[in-house]
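Thread: MRU complex, take 2
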Amino acid sequence: METPTPLLPTPDHALVWREGRLYLLDQRLLPGRAEFLELNSASATARAIRDMVVRGAPAIGIAAAFGVVLAARDRYAQDGEGWRSPIQADLAELAASRPTAVNLFWALERMSHRLAGLGAGDPTQVLLAEALAIHAEDIAANRRMGELGASLIQGPTAVITPCNAGALATGGYGTALGVIRQGFADGKITRVFADETRPWLQGTRLTAWELTQDGIPVTLQADGAAASLMAQGGIGWVIVGSDRIAANGDVANKIGTYGLAILARYHGIGFMVAAPTSTIDWETPNGAAIPIEERDPDEVLACGGQRLGPAGVGARNPVFDVTPAALVDAIVTERGIVERPTAERMRALLG
Ligand code: MRU
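Output below.
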């Protein structure tokens, strides 16, 4: 038997389907350890999403799509032609894993639509083809957004990015980091200032790891250091991803993004959101209607596994915030750029 090629622990191989298993590069361990977790059921996939083994809106959606493939395989093996009713419990479990990233629900909807149209027989291969298409389309969308987003940057300039909206957070290449990759290749971006992004430190652990691997100059800063950096000058853009964009262009993204948008506007710096159209929730009229995930207060009270807050103190831990459309200069999607978004300008994407 042929030995399979080893899994590559690089940002572009964070999510791999191989021989009936889903492999996820465990993002909780990076950058110290690059280890893959092997998943063989829908429940294990839902747990991995909830526990942040995989995170970032598009990557969550892709993982869930593969979770549906695992569910269909198992339900068909167990129940034969009766698989359609029990698989609803798997879809519900996957949907309950994280509430804000709309790509999760978009991917589950697309997979459900596919399975609704299936005839008799083993559903696994058809659903696998759909999940692989979702993955491939996401990478292609990121490449396109990279080109479109970079075309807005005059440069040479430095940029600020929070959290991780890179290859790790997507099918590959990244949304915000896709724009940054293209902007750097074009000589427009000279340096990236990555906000550390408490409490999960996606900037420190993931964005710094990704950009270092690509040889893109990156400097970490505490989240509170962004204002003084902007005041010094030399920052042309703040570039972010998104977990859900409402129909009027309000943008939910990692907690702290709203603050960065206010700072950018005050300092006359551009604020760009790069996100595929699968992140747009046409059913949600505005940001106030976007569900914001609250995670365990212990994530704020501790750091690196060490408890720092005094006993008895509580903590807030909303992990996303909403930036009003009025503070956004451009939403870059694979279908085009929406400048100074409004509901009407957003709708033009549908045309
Ligand atoms: O809590 P996370 O790490 O899943 O949050 C991720 C973000 O906020 C990203 O910016 C967003 O999902 C866009 S990823 C291309």
